[in-house]
Amino acid sequence: GPLVEVAELTVRYGAATALDRVSLTVGVGELVALVGPNGAGKSTLVDTLSGILVPASGSVTVRGRLAHVPEGRQVFGDLSVEDNLRLGGWRIGERDTAAVYAVLPALTELRRRRAGLLSGGEQQMVAVGRALMSRPDVLVIDELSLGLAPLVVADLVRHLRELNAWRGVAVLLIEQNARLALDLCSRAYVLEAGRIVAEGTSAELAASS
Ligand code: ADP
Ligand code: ADP
Questions:
Q1: Parallel/antiparallel/unpaired status of strands 57-62 and 66-69
Q2: Which of 43, 74, 143, 192 maximizes ligand 2 atoms within 8 Å of its Cβ, making it the mutation to test the pocket?
Q3: Is 49 in a helix, a strand, or coil?
């Protein structure tokens, strides 16, 4: 079956329903987007995938390892890029950063730099690299483009495509920026007020919007 399978998922905060019978899948090696405005329920879905929130009903199945790149270029600013990467591997005892440099070559030149002094796009790449250290089957990336210039985002998207092609890592991209999502991903789901209101290939969604 798919790597990530969300079936008829309902999540509530007290009496408020944040997700209402949401279903989605991410297959092996797929690039899938979840698009929606603020308050749609995107964070709630990610927190349920991570096991932080418990569903009221429905189910979440993750077959394989999931890594999460949180919103906001979260790096350890006082540490070098290399040490930021190593921290990403501590759970599985992974210390070898070579595979990450191979797939994100731009990080190689930055390896001794202090992460806090890098540009926003570079920090976002470090955050992706750190997540890769756990050798995930699927990467959940929150708001990749937030606060970044379009050219920087284009560069990150290129790296993600290469990553996907080279390693077969699946990506679930959580985005407010529908254009970016449709550009990178082969399939997308549109979430509004806790419900999936549209889904399809990028071409289908672009034609209907
Ligand atoms: P998004 O990530 O798409 O902005 P969220 O998942 O953060 O959306 O929020 C979905 C809905 O759930 C919103 O109406 C939000 O106000 C509500 N919500 C989120 N977190 C909580 C919480 N801890 N308690 C109560 N309501 C919450
Ligand atoms: P995001 O930008 O990821 O959508 P938010 O800014 O909506 O996150 O929420 C930040 C934090 O506040 C989260 O922990 C979320 O659960 C919580 N939160 C969001 N909406 C509400 C709400 N209506 N009541 C209580 N907590 C909320």
A1: unpaired
A2: 43
A3: helix
Q: Is residue 21 a contact partner of residue 10, using CB atoms and an 8 Å limit?
A: yes
Report the predicted TM-score, pTM, of the whole model to 2 decimal places.
Answer: 0.87
- Per residue in 117-176, pLDDT (tens digit) is 999 989 999 999 999 999 899 999 998 888 787 778 888 888 888 877 777 889 999 998
Predicted ipTM of the assembly = 0.73
Note whether 138 and 3 are within 8 A (CB).
yes
Angular region, 99: left φ>0, alpha ψ -120 to 50, beta rest: alpha
Cβ atoms within 10 Å of 95's Cβ, excluding its own:
10
Q: 10 Å Cβ neighbour count for 92?
A: 11
Report which secondary-structure segment, H or E, holds 115. none
Q: CB–CB of 163/155 below 8 Å?
A: no
Cα 44 to ligand 2 centre (Å)? 9
R_g of the chain computed on alpha carbons: 17
pLDDT tops 70 at residue 86: yes
Q: Output the residue whose Cα is nearest ligand 1's atom 15.
A: 39
Q: Produce one character per residue of 73-88: b if its CB has 16 or more CB atoms within 10 Å, e if not.
A: bbbeeebbbbbbbbeb
